């Protein structure tokens, strides 16, 4: 211990010597052509995060920001930055899984296709919506069409090969019940059945949900009470789980959308806040896991951001967060699809999520789903710069090795001792 203290004192003396260097007055005025600025280091959580996406094959997580930046991170050493030159906020993203492509939807209602396989990533295709604003996008695994929901309640389809819009459009007044004279609001979520790619769930802002058949244009409508905020298919496509405005979750059969099979309120029978997002994943032959944000009781004072994890119907874990939850994504094992006669065979193919990535307003974390209490998996990237306000930054080159060692020693003592035993996100 004394040896470490001596090293630390020696390092501090070396640091002081940097400040004691003689200043030299230069008569010539420094001009802009005398300087060349290059990025030395990028540190901390991306500023103003808005959305995230995940590639389960390449094990990449992308975070889009309000300044038009996209941070793509993976295992240690994998850290890239993409920038929209216009600075428009990135509101929605979808990976082209294992293809080196990323789709971004920005605040100017433009949709871009990035190619990051090459040395210098670039936008290879762009489409601009003129009369409607993009409210959500959806891209099924290995699909060739991007599904686009708009603020007018309509659904469009974009061909990824040509990046042209299809003439096939689902208009809101064709999807909802004719007896409903009120506009359903923007499309908030789109979800294609994992077993039948002709069945599409459409979630509207006012809680209306319909199942649209892309082949014959038939529609099945879900009950309006309670209004639905989020949906998720079971892996076999036979059932649908919904997160509702009153904090309850409902289970529906695929062939009978008019009445739920089961309905429960995980956080009590009293008034609860809306469930903002719900995910339903398959763990093993007889076990599943349900995760949702929101749904907390209203009698607990101010709304507390929380992620609830229900495992196998036997245990419930509520993880309270320091900041509002923007989005969360279960990190699954590599998705395996068997294609036979143009049909996806999903039976007996477990998704087995090992962790869940949670994007917060001022933080980003990955939680271990296989360890008791779901501790945080230590990130190979520095994400905690927002824990305290940054007032100044200094850069020193050619630092003494003793100084680096001393700072490492201090930082080690400040590390969270309750990290997961898992060593990586993938």
UniProtKB/TrEMBL annotation:
Pfam families xref list: LLGL, WD40
InterPro entries hit by this protein: LLGL2, WD40/YVTN_repeat-like_dom_sf, WD40_repeat_dom_sf, WD40_rpt
GO BP field: exocytosis
Domain Lethal giant larvae homologue: 264-375
Keywords: Exocytosis
Signal peptide: none
Keyword Transmembrane helix: no
SMART domains documented for this protein: WD40
Family: Belongs to the WD repeat L(2)GL family.
Name of protein: Lethal giant larvae homologue 2 domain-containing protein
């Amino acid at each position: 211990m004394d040896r470490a203290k001596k090293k630390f004192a020696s390092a501090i003396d070396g640091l002081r010597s940097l400040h004691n260097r003689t200043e030299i007055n230069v008569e010539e005025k420094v001009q802009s052509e005398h300087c060349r600025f290059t990025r030395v280091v990028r540190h901390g959580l991306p500023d103003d995060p808005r959305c995230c996406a995940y590639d389960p094959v390449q094990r990449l997580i992308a975070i889009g920001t309000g300044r038009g930046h996209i941070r793509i991170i993976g295992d240690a050493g994998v850290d890239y930055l993409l920038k929209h030159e216009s600075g428009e906020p990135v509101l929605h993203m979808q990976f082209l899984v294992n293809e080196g492509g990323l789709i971004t939807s920005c605040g100017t209602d433009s949709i871009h296709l990035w190619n990051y396989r090459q040395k210098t990533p670039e936008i290879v295709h762009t489409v601009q919506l003129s009369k409607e604003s993009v409210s959500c996008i959806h891209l099924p695994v290995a699909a060739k069409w991007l599904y686009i929901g708009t603020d007018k309640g309509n659904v469009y389809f974009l061909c990824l090969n040509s990046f042209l819009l299809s003439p096939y459009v689902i208009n809101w007044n064709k999807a909802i019940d004719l007896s409903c004279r009120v506009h359903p609001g923007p499309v908030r979520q789109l979800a294609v059945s994992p077993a039948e790619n002709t069945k599409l769930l459409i979630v509207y802002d006012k809680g209306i949900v319909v199942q649209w058949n892309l082949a014959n244009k038939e529609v099945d409508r879900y009950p309006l009470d309670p209004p639905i905020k989020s949906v998720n298919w079971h892996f076999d496509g036979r059932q649908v789980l919904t997160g509702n405005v009153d904090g309850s979750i409902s289970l529906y059969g695929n062939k009978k959308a008019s009445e739920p099979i089961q309905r429960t309120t995980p956080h009590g029978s009293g008034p609860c806040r809306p469930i903002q997002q719900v995910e339903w994943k398959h763990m093993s032959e007889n076990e599943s896991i349900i995760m949702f944000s929101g749904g907390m009781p209203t009698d607990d004072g101010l709304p507390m951001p929380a992620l609830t994890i229900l495992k196998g119907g036997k245990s419930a874990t509520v993880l309270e967060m320091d900041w509002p939850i923007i989005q969360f994504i279960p990190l699954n094992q590599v998705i395996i699809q068997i294609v036979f006669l143009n049909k996806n065979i999903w039976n007996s193919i477990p998704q087995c999520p090992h962790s869940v990535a949670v994007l917060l307003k001022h933080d980003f974390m990955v939680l271990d789903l296989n360890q008791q209490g779901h501790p945080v998996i230590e990130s190979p990237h520095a994400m905690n710069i927002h824990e305290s306000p940054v007032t100044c930054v200094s850069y020193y080159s050619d630092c003494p090795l003793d100084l680096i060692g001393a700072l490492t020693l201090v930082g080690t003592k400040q590390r969270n001792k309750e990290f997961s035993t898992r060593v990586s996100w993938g």
